[in-house]
Amino acid sequence: MSALLGVNFWDNFNTTQSVSSGSDTFYVDRAYITYRPGAKKKSLFTVGRFDYAFGNNRALQYYETFDGLKYRYQTDKGAFTAGYGKFKEGRRLLDSKAAFAEVEKFFKNGSALGFYYTRVNGLTDERSGHVWGGYTNIVLGKKWQANYELYRVDRKDESTLKDGTTYIATVKYGKTDFAKPRSWDLWGEYLHAAAGTANDDCCGTWRMHADDTKGWGIGLDYTLAKNAQIQLFLTFDTKVTS
Questions:
Q1: Which span out of 24-28, 120-124, 125-129, 168-172 was modeled with the highest average pLDDT?
Q2: Percent of the chain as helix, strand, coil, to the nearest 5
Q3: Could you count the other beta carbons within 10 Å of the beta carbon of residue 23?
Q4: Dist CA 218 CA 51 (whole Å)
Q5: Cα(35)–Cα(140) distance, integer angstroms
Q6: I want to staple 187 with a disulfide (CB 3.0 to 4.6 A). Which of 4, 5, 142, 172 is the partner?
Q7: Tens digit of pLDDT for each residue in 106-160?
């Protein structure tokens, strides 16, 4: 069993859209306990406040502070994750409750395939609904990698926001490593995110705006020295989807 406590300080962070709101405020962003039962330690229980990437891949829906319980069972061949709790950051999902589950298959060459489901029970109809999705990460040889994710958000009939489907595809050449100087990679990406399906202020994308967006992106990652890396990226032909 292990425990972790993390504290952040925000200087003049004036917003009411997160647990970290307030001016010049200390707040706890991570405080959780983990437990691995059994001798083989394939199961892991996490209880408390932790970061979680919904979808566990690109995490366009959410990748921030989450209060709750998470269970994960993992082997070399695959993994199962399930949990329940409450979102603690973001404009759209703040204080919404969620139950989630994900199944993943791992392959010997590093490729992966995953399917996930999240049930969100928010404070309003616009913040409630179902998220169904899947992803694949394909490793081709030593240099090439392709990633694709698609998910759908189904909302209550009373919601003013429409149901929507989002997909994102990335192709990468090379392999950068923080511990390996002069390692690098080049990548290209296409994103098509329906309105109300991505959370710009608390998701796992490098884009400033992902929700209600379609367009291309390119980038370069280069490790200058151990634990020192430069990342360059550019969007083009970006438009709104709605």
A1: 168-172
A2: 0, 60, 40
A3: 10
A4: 27
A5: 36
A6: 172
A7: 999 999 999 999 999 887 777 788 999 999 999 998 899 999 999 999 987 666 6
